[in-house]
Structures are given as C-alpha cells and as structure tokens.
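RECORD TYPE: inverse folding
INPUT: structure tokens
STRUCTURE:
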C-alpha cells in the first residue's frame, strides 16, 4: 500500500507517567516512516458484560471499537502484573472482540513489547498477551521478541533512552514490525 500503516497503540499501564508509556513513546519515535500511531486509551472502559451487549452498548465500548477498527496494525506495550497482563488491557481485548463475529482485532498484524523494573522484562505478560492474540486472530511478530528488563534504569524521567544498545535493539524491532505489517496487512 502507498499510505503509511495506521497503528493502534495500546499501553497496558493506566498510569499516565508509567515506564511502559514512556517506552511506547520511544518506540513511536524509532518507527520507520511507513507507520503512523494512534494511542487508544481504555482507562474508562466498563468491564465487559455480555448483558450490556445490546443494540445500544455502552458508549465507551463503541468509541473504543470505532477507534481501533480503522487501524491497519496493533502495537501493545505492557507491564506485567502477577505474571500476566494488567486487567485493563485484558478488558480492552474482551471489549474489542465482541460482539461475536465483529472483532476489531481480527487479521490485524500486531507486535508485543513488555517492560518491567525487574530483570525478566515482563516475559509472563508478553506471552499471556500473545496467547490471547492467537485466539483473536492477530498475526503477531514472532521475532525479535522484546522484553525490556530494568526499565527504570533504561528510560529517564524525560522519556529518553539512556542506553545505546537498547536504542539499537528497539530500532531494529520497529523496522522488523514495519516489514511485518507490510507483509501481513489486508
């Protein structure tokens, strides 16, 4: 396609100044020219409840779905909570996957980056999210995998990376994601 890919950016942490939000902004800055980004918030999504899935679902659900639907691709940047994804992100996945047969996720190429203050870089969250994305029919960038450990020492309070090797890795990651989008977007 001639136009840049529209990428919906979903940050698993709800905190405005979270390390993962800073990481997401770094990733956007390192992205190749064939990508544009829209950070899609989900802080105010009511919990998914099928009883509310009527002809007039809750307005925040519809607004969220309408924001994700036109995206060509998906970038998830998430911390790890209790060896899995934060509840808000899981709820966003559920809201976007309904009503049955009308998922906003289906077929969109995606990538997952996880970051934590610990040494294993959110490995559990990364893989839990990938498991859900398989079911949601989101072809997900297989390599390189991105687990950013000790994130508090890698991204400064002003949002800049403090390590050149991390910048090099993330630049390669975003280039690989851009190429993956080009190969997989509808």
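DESIGNED SEQUENCE:
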């Amino acid at each position: 396609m001639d136009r840049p890919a529209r990428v919906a950016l979903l940050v698993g942490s709800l905190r405005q100044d979270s390390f993962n939000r800073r990481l997401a902004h770094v990733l956007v800055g390192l992205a190749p020219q064939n990508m544009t980004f829209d950070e899609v918030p989900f802080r105010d999504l009511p919990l998914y409840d099928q009883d509310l899935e009527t002809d007039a679902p809750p307005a925040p659900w519809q607004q969220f779905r309408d924001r994700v639907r036109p995206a060509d691709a998906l970038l998830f940047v998430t911390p790890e909570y209790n060896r899995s994804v934060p509840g808000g992100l899981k709820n966003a996945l559920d809201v976007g996957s309904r009503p049955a047969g009308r998922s906003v996720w289906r077929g969109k190429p995606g990538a997952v980056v996880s970051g934590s203050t610990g040494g294993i870089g959110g490995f559990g969250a990364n893989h839990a999210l990938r498991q859900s994305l398989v079911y949601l029919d989101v072809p997900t960038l297989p390599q390189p995998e991105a687990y950013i450990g000790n994130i508090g020492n890698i991204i400064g309070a002003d949002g800049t990376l403090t390590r050149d090797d991390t910048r090099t890795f993330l630049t390669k990651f975003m280039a690989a994601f851009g190429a993956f989008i080009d190969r997989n977007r509808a």
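NOTES: The chain has one domain: 5-184.
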